[in-house]
Every structure is written in structure tokens, then in C-alpha cells.
Amino acid sequence: xxxxxxxxxxxxGLLLAxxxxxxSATTTPATGGAGAPTPPAASxxxxxxxxxxxxxxxxxxxxxxxxxxxxxxxxPVGSGAGIQxxxxxxxxxxxxxxxxxxxxxxxxxxxxKVVQIASTLGTESLxxxxxxxxxxxxxxxxxxxxxxxxxxxxxxxxxALKADNxxxxxxxxxxxxxxxxxxxxxTYIFTDYLSNVSAAWKAKTGGPGKSVNWPxxxxxxGNAGVATRITQxxxxxxxxxxxxxxxxxxxxxxxxxxxxNFVLPSAAGATAAASQxxxxxxxxxxxxNAPGKDSAPISGYSWLMVYTDQPxxxxxxxxxxxxxxxxxxxxxYAVNLHYAKLPSNMVANDIAALKGVTSxxxxxxxxxx
Length: 369
Hints:
Elements: H1 2-20, E1 42-48, H2 53-66, E2 70-75, H3 79-87, E3 93-96, H4 102-107, E4 114-128, E5 139-140, H5 142-150, H6 159-164, E6 176-180, H7 185-197, H8 199-205, E7 218-220, H9 222-232, E8 236-241, H10 242-247, E9 251-252, E10 254-256, E11 262-263, H11 267-274, E12 299-307, H12 313-327, H13 331-335, H14 344-354, E13 358-359, E14 362-363
Parallel strand pairs: 1-2, 1-3, 5-10, 6-7, 6-8
Antiparallel strand pairs: 3-12, 4-8, 4-9, 4-12, 10-11, 13-14
Helix pairs in contact: 1-2, 1-9, 7-8, 12-14
């Protein structure tokens, strides 16, 4: 029961922060751009990634305050489950931190049958639970991160960790690795990073994936589940989306990036990483281990997916209007929850993609906000 209560308080805290935090966004609903259409009445359902869930929950609430005739129910069940539900057409949109694989697109009728848009940009932290080691004090390198998750570094006072953390009193304590137990885009981004920096990791596990055979550790469901497990387990470490770490005041490590600088994961670090890859698309989406002195090394986009042909014109129009707002005015709610605002080139790509969503042969997006 304690774990359920903690997870619930995490979600509540994130929503409150989005609506009344200390940064620029407030409880005042965003206003649409000049000429933005009024969406038709509809009840929309989405499911998938937990990485962007705090953003989605805050943004969809704000959208309903602006357009009370539209309700949006989003279930953060993990990227894998979100793709499955979209494939079965039990939701109006799916969410994943990884664009569709060829086999997943084939199950939906082919890549031309689904539109994929980048919805937000964020980064992952390595959060830990070590008594006496404060936030940002622990430093981790690509080699030590890979060794911890391979299980070859087993103690916090391992010589390799001590060498990077002179002055810290690292304890003679077992490292308790925590990872996702569900099919997860957060896991894909993290294992994509590990595969980029560690040949040993790639050889052991076969490379990145939403689900992998973990060499070591205990699993928990969702970002909130991993965060809860870490906070309850002395000696624990795990990968968690930045918003969960900052809003729940977890401790996170400084990470050595590709330029050799130790950086604390931040939204600005995600922006710096994304700026190195201007050609990002659903077929070329990895931005992990990016060059640049300020780049956060475990960064990535999150994606939303809808069917190109919408059988219900009213619901399809409401879905497209929602997504158009989300990648434009809705980005303020991402910024307030420590995600990075979408770069302008990605917004332009998103709008171009949404213009391809049709019903009965007619485009549904009439005016971009």
C-alpha cells in the first residue's frame, strides 16, 4: 500500500507543479493562435508513454479548461502498451518515446497509414538513494554507468566510482539497480545510450529496446514506479525521466557527456543535445550521447501517433486540433514541468504531418494555431 500512496502523491505533485509552479506557466488556460479553429465536441482517449505523462496530463487539463466540449483521457501504460492499443484501435492516439518499428507499422497497415509527430523533448536522470550523498554530488561516466547496469560494479565504493568521486565518502554498500518492468520508451532511450557508449552492453543485451533482458536489478512499472522503488530502497539507482526527479526532489547524478563534461540533466541540456541533430524524424530519431559541452547525454523526443485516415470525421477533427494545439501553445506546459520546448523545425515537421490526416479524403487540419 505504501508504494501505491507514494506513486499517487508523485502524480498529484507533478500536476500541481504544472498548473501552479514557479516558472512562467500558470493555471490560466493557453489561448489559441490567431484564427485557431474551435474543435467539435468529442471524448478522446490516448494511451502509452509514461516519460511525457506529466506534461500530457497538465496540458490536456488546460485544453479542457479552454474547450470544455473536448475531454481527453490519457492512460500512461508504457510505450509498448500504447502502440498495442492503437494497433487494436481501442484509443484515438498512441504515445511512445520511440517511433514505430517496421513490424509495428505493418500491423497498422503500413507506415503510410499512421502519422507520427514529436510532442515533446526531454532527458533522463540517473537517480540514486545514498545516505549522505546529496543531489548532484555523485559523478558517473559512461563506463561506470554501463558497468553498474551490467552488474560488474556491485558496490558503491568500487574503485572505479571512487576514482571519479574524490572527496565523497562512498559507502561499502550493495548497489541496487532498478529498471522498468514494462515495455518502455524510457527504457529504449536509456538502452540506446548504453549501446552507444558500451560495446560490452550491446554485446550482452543485443542493443536498444523497449524491453531487454536485464543482466541485473529489480523491475518496476512506469517512471513513477521506478521513482517510488528508488526512494524506498537504500543503495538504489535507476533511470527516471527528469520531471519525476525534480518535482519529487530525488537526488540525481552528474553525467559525463560526449565532450567530457559532467552535466546535471536539465531541459536546457536536452535542447543542447537536440540542436546537434536538425534532421531528426520518425526514421532518424536518436539524439543520445550528443556532442556539445552542455548536452545532456540521455535525451530524446517523445512521439504521438494517429491513423492517417480517420473513420469518424468529428472525432478525427477534434484529435487533430488537439495535437496542433499541443505542439504550439501547449508547449508552455512542457516547459513548466522541466521538458524542453519543441524546436521550431520539429514543430514545422509536425504541422506538415498533421496536414496529412484525412477523413473521407478531406484534410482535417484547416488552420494551424
